[in-house]
């Protein structure tokens, strides 16, 4: 897995809000991959060059990240990378799990026969794709479609929007690496579907929360193997 964020095409005509979000996504990747460490100051020029934007969207993107706690603005010095700990990962996933669990519980009440059939087909396709060793992109797409369908079935637009705002705090590639490949998904998705089919709201909510929280442990293990917290561990054992 290549930890290097990919530069975006220069001369983009995307709206300015999208450009600032592109910057935020790029810098999150730098931080979570360990290429930008806690205490580092972020220079706007290299970021602008990499993303292909002017300095204004860079500053706006960094302000977005300051609101998420990834960076902090130091007067007269600029934006500094904040610490990103294992507990931060767990907190992000906990918030996701709480919202996704509530949405799953609501979906168990509201889900239509057509949506249940769609989920049944997704679960079957996913299991077949994993068994056949299909390309990872297809497996990931099926995993995402499973969750998207449940969120839509909940018919709770505002709650789904809140969930989306939390999900974007981690780069997509991390979700892609942990969603759709492990035994956890092959086990959990059919169980969640069964709870939805039987209209068991509490069971569906609990299963979804547990499923999401498993991803936190998987991601922490992945980031530890990449050496994200290696320096901190050395300091603590010195």
Automatic annotation (TrEMBL):
It holds the Pfam family FCD. InterPro entries: GntR_C, TF_FadR/GntR_C, Tscrpt_reg_HTH_GntR, WH-like_DNA-bd_sf, WH_DNA-bd_sf. Residues 17-84 form the HTH gntR-type domain. It comes from the Bacteria. SUPFAM superfamilies: GntR ligand-binding domain-like, Winged helix' DNA-binding domain. Keywords: DNA-binding, Transcription, Transcription regulation. This is GntR family transcriptional regulator. It comes from Skermania pinensis.
């Amino acid at each position: 897995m290549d930890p290097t964020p990919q530069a975006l095409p220069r001369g983009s005509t995307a709206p300015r809000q999208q450009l600032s979000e592109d910057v935020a996504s790029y810098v999150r990747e730098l931080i979570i991959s360990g290429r930008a460490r806690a205490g580092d100051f972020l220079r706007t020029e290299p970021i602008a060059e990499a993303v292909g934007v002017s300095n204004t969207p860079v500053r706006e993107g960094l302000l977005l990240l300051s609101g998420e706690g990834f960076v902090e603005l130091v007067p007269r010095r600029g934006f500094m990378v904040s610490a990103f700990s294992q507990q931060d990962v767990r907190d992000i996933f906990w918030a996701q799990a709480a919202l996704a669990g509530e949405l799953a519980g609501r979906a168990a009440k509201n889900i239509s026969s057509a949506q249940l059939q769609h989920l049944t087909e997704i679960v079957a396709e996913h299991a077949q794709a994993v068994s056949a060793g299909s390309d990872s992109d297809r497996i990931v797409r099926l995993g995402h479609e499973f969750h998207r369908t449940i969120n839509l079935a909940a018919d709770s637009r505002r709650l789904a929007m809140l969930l989306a705002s939390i999900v974007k705090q981690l780069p997509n590639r991390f979700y892609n690496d942990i969603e759709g490949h492990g035994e956890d998904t092959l086990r959990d998705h059919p169980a969640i579907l069964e709870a939805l089919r039987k209209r068991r709201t509490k069971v569906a909510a609990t299963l979804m929360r547990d499923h999401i929280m498993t991803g936190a442990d998987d991601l922490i293990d992945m980031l530890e193997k990449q050496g994200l917290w290696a320096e901190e561990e050395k300091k603590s054992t010195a």
